[in-house]
Amino acid sequence: MPWENNGGGGGRNTGGPWGQAPGGGGGGPRRPGGGNTPNLEDILNRGRDQFRGGVPGGRWLIVGGIVVAVAFWALNSVYTVGSSEVGVELRLGQPKQELSMPGLHFHLWPIETVEKVNISENQSTIGSTNTGGRGGTDDGLMLSGDQNIVDVRFAVLWSVSNPIDYLFNVRDPEDMVTNAAESAMREVVGRRPAQDIFRDDRAGIAAEVQQITQSILDSYNMGVNVSQISIENGAPPAEVADAFNEVQRAEQDEDRLQEEARSYANTLLGDSRGQAAAIREEAAAYANRVVQEATGEAERFNSIYAEYVNAPEVTRKRLYLETMEQVLGGSSKVLMEDGTAGGSGVVPYLPLPELRANSSGGSSSNSSGNNAPSSTTSTGN
């Protein structure tokens, strides 16, 4: 080679580039400790000889590297799915239709990868007191149908029904659920008066918001099921809370007075209805009694008339006697017999009982005290 034969000789030149080492002598100067200075070709030859003989322990190093590579591949190929999760395997980025249930599973990494989805029920809270990721202080301020501003705080309970759609159809599904629920609540509140949100129809509003939210999420094929909308609080903004509370108290007083008036009216109406019912019962009883008496009198007359037809004289006499008994039954009577042969006929008498009665009554009623006795004379033939 050029650096081996610079001196023109055929032998090996161990000196400088001109065939002789500095200082003279064919062998040239030696390094301390003996030996000539190695040239580049010697170094390359020695390295080639070492590679031909093999690296010490090289085979075991290769085997160990293979074992480590296999272990690393196995660790990445085995995965575990939790009890509240499902796994979606992807082969070259394409999801498989089969889902991985909770437990230990194997896939061909890195050709296949896995995405895990939590299928338990999730809760997203929306409102002015929300301190989460979207915790703005104006989230719950909404305009009602009667042009009032209300502050609504509500929670959305939802779960994943289709993990594949949940992972690949929407970029941020949780934020999408929150936005859809808030939009639905604003739509429903904008059609209702503020009183419905405060107390009158919270259940109806929650049901309507749930239906609208579910329809929005279904239109995006998100694979999410909204199970419940819970309105936790509905109140006016803090700036007008005092005035609104005054209005509420006035309305409550109005309702209370109206309720008392209705109660009083119901009491009077109940008493009047009871009296009317009693009067109707008395009238019905009186009418029944009169009719029964009239019926009895008519039947008695008919029976008397039948006897009169059979025996007129006897019947007339009996009727006369009964009539005289009724007429004379309550009056004072004096019975006088016809005069006999030796009698005087009519005998005057002094009415002592009447005199005593008149004297006792006159002493208390007449202030003059003048009571004239009277005598009654009956004559008879």
SSE order: HHEEEEEEEEHHHHEHHH
Q: In terms of structural class, how would the helical and strand content be classed?
A: alpha+beta
- Assign the CATH superfamily of the domain at 122-236: Band 7 domain
Low-confidence blocks of residues? 1-34, 130-136, 367-381
Total count of helical runs of at least 4 residues? 9
How is the CATH topology of the domain at 122-236 named?
A: Tetrahydropterin Synthase, Chain A
In one word, what is the shape?
rod-shaped
Mean pLDDT: 74
- Fraction of helical residues: 40-55%
Rg to the nearest angstrom?
Answer: 65 Å
The first-level CATH class name of the domain at 122-236: Alpha Beta
User: What is the β-strand count?
Assistant: 9
% residues in beta strands = 15-25%
Termini separation (Å)? Answer: 208 Å
Q: Tell me the CATH architecture of the domain at 122-236.
A: 2-Layer Sandwich
User: How is the biggest beta sheet arranged?
Assistant: 4 strands, antiparallel
GO cellular component, one term: membrane
InterPro entries: Band7/mec-2_domain, Band_7, Band_7/SPFH_dom_sf, HflK
Subunit structure: HflC and HflK may interact to form a multimeric complex.
Subcellular location: Membrane
